[in-house]
Design goal:
Blueprint: H1 8-21, E1 27-32, H2 41-51, H3 62-73, E2 78-85, H4 88-94, E3 104-109
Parallel strand pairs: 1-2, 2-3
Helix pairs in contact: 2-3
Length: 119
């Protein structure tokens, strides 16, 4: 937990770029959220696009897109950064519960009530 302006986004961006330069992740996405923003199709579509996924369109529901995302990352080493999370529900709506071996999810937040490793 850290207040605004202490460098969470800067640190997450540096770490993301370093991990990409190391070449361990062919599939990666960086998502910056707004305060108390509800997660919708546009967020999931953005993550899927950044990861290089195909087979979805503007007619898919958020639930369908999360299912596609879950299937897509289930056997891939993916790097995903979710910056500026305010409530746990944002994570539940945006990220699948399981990833392929070697995957990493980096989350930044001002909130001390978000789960850590148990998420």
């Amino acid at each position: 937990m850290c207040t605004g302006g202490c460098g969470k986004t800067t640190l997450a961006t540096l770490l993301y770029n370093r991990l990409l330069q190391a070449g361990n992740f062919q599939h990666h996405a960086f998502m910056e959220l707004k305060h108390d923003e509800s997660i919708g199709c546009q967020h999931l579509t953005s993550v899927l696009n950044q990861l290089g996924a195909t087979g979805f369109n503007q007619n898919n529901t958020a639930k369908q897109l999360l299912g596609l995302l879950s299937k897509y990352v289930s056997n891939k080493a993916a790097l995903i950064v979710v910056d500026n999370v305010w409530v746990k529900g944002q994570l539940d709506d945006l990220l699948p519960r399981s990833f392929g071996a070697g995957s990493r999810v980096i989350i930044t937040s001002r909130s001390s009530s978000l789960p850590g490793s148990q998420w």
